[in-house]
Amino acid sequence: MDYELDTDDFETIGKAFEETFPSIVNRGVVGYGKAVLIPQVELVDFAVEWMTKNRK
Fold first, then answer.
1. Is residue 9 part of a domain?
2. Which domain, by its residues, includes 36?
3. Cβ within 8 Å of residue 45, ≥6 positions away
4. Per-residue pLDDT of the chain in tens (56 residues, 90 and over written 9)
5. Left if phi > 0, otherwise alpha if psi is -120 to 50, otherwise beta: which for 32?
6. Distances (CA, A) of 1 to 4, 24, 43
7. How far apart are CA 38 and CA 6, in angstroms?
8. Does residue 5 form part of some domain?
């Protein structure tokens, strides 16, 4: 089995996810840090589809 370890487009995928589903992405503060709460199942499904369409 081959594994793809390239993470260069993860930030792009995250931004695209948030633009597509703004109502399920929650931003806030935890302690002194900024946090983003994103449902993982939806994010992974979106990322798989995005990578299938956009990665070579």
1. no
2. 24-56
3. none
4. 777 788 899 999 999 999 999 999 999 999 999 999 999 999 999 999 999 999 87
5. alpha
6. 10, 33, 23
7. 21
8. no
